[in-house]
Amino acid sequence: MTAAAAALLLATAACGGANAAPAAASAARAPAEPQGPQPGVGEFTAYRQTMPRSEVAFDMVPVAGGRFRMGSPADEPGRDDDEGPPIEVEVEPFWMGRCEVTWAEYDLWNTDTERPQSKRPDGIARPTPPYVDMTFQMGRDGYPAIGMSHVAARQYCKWLSDQTGRFHRLPTEAEWEYACRAGAATAYAFGDDPARLGEFAWFGGNSARELERGAKPVPAYQKVGTKPANAWGLCDLHGNVAEWVADAYLADAYAEAHGAAPRRAPYLPPGRDASGRPVRFPHTVRGGSWRDAAPALRSAAREPSVPEWNERDPQIPKSWWYLTDAQHIGFRVVRPWREPTAAERKQYEEP
User: Fold this and answer.
1) Where is 157: in which H helix or E strand?
2) Whether the predicted pLDDT of 224 surpasses 90
3) Cα angle at 140 between 240 and 158, to 5 degrees?
4) Which pLDDT value is given to residue 205?
5) 302 and 79 in contact (C-beta within 8 Å)?
6) Whole-number average pLDDT of the chain
7) Which of 66, 154, 231, 247 could join 34 via S-S bond, C-beta 3.0 to 4.6 A?
8) What residues are paired with 285 via a beta bridge?
9) Residue 248's beta-bridge partner residues?
10) 292, 241 contact by CB (below 8 A)
């Protein structure tokens, strides 16, 4: 069995709910094909990572490397100019979290007393306590962690690498879209029809629920993995919470000026200001969320982070760790198949 076939078998695996794979007939106009040598059987399989000194665990899914067309065609309904022109991209194999990082996982970092708390990220510290309940009464057990800054998500990944002995990071924007499409060239992994979105994703049209008994249902995030997985066994890439990727945001990221096709999983690292501090905005968010309309959940849709996501934070200066007004933002982790060089690792781990 090839690595690609093994990944496809995961479409029948449970992801926290009833997860029969969606029909692929309408979704595979131009499937991504694995390119070159792939990891062998027994070396590149799904696994469950249990956190040290804890019962908390999460599942990692193998994604075979390949080439695909990144971006959307000019005639795709709901398309924005920053999604093109489409460009061919080559992606190396990697594992990706089957679901978004949950509060149970994220809270282990927040409560790791072996690391000091600091208002400023330094590659070692953990966040200071938030000024508000960052779940916003939407639930904690089984729900995705939200409201963290881009640098906090990156530093969580560094902490996770230290804890597990396996290098983890945020996905590149190319890796994220490749995994979301799962071989499809349509607007969504399941096809082009937004009327079917409720079958596969949590979004503004179906996410309302009671946050308190007897209260009027309001849009809110949902427990991870309660919608069907895509054809590669990954859950919630469309909707629930929008997800940080590693890249800084550029509106013209696909332009020829940034490299000729096929590109090799381009990564645009966060920049630094004149004082050497990381530039806080904009970074790229993918997937759409529980509060968004259908077009924002398309595989190619991109969203830049903005300072307004931190507007109500009472700290002066604003917190480096939390985005109080970004209740729709979370993330998931990847683990590259190829062990990175020290220089590559530094690009993802520097605060």
Assistant:
1) helix 150-164
2) yes
3) 80
4) 97
5) no
6) 88
7) 66
8) 244, 303
9) 283
10) no
DSSP string, 102-118: BHHHHHHHHT-TTS-EE
What is the value of pTM for the model shown? 0.89
Question: Degrees (nearest 5) of the Cα angle 255, 345, 348?
Answer: 55
For residue 170, what are its two tokens?
Answer: 């945020």
Report d(CA 249, CA 274) in Å as an integer. Answer: 19
Domain 3-349 has CATH 3.40.50.1780: no
The set of residues, in sequence order, having a beta carbon less than 8 Å from that of 293 and lying 6+ positions away, is 203, 204, 205
> φ and ψ at 146, to 5 degrees?
-140, 170
For residue 238, give the nearest of 140, 100, 103 by alpha carbon.
100
Range with the lowest mean pLDDT among 100-104, 178-182, 280-284?
280-284
Contact assessment for residue 67 and residue 35, using Cβ atoms and an 8 Å cutoff: yes
Number of Cβ atoms within 10 Å of the Cβ of 59:
22
Residue type, 61: V
Six-digit token string for 78: 């709901």
Rounded Cα gap, residues 133 and 128, in angstroms: 13
CA separation for the pair 90, 120 (Å, rounded): 36
What span, in angstroms and rounded, lies between the C-alpha atoms of 42 and 44?
6
At residue 292, what is the residue type? D
Angle between helices 342-349 and 150-164 (to 10 degrees): 130
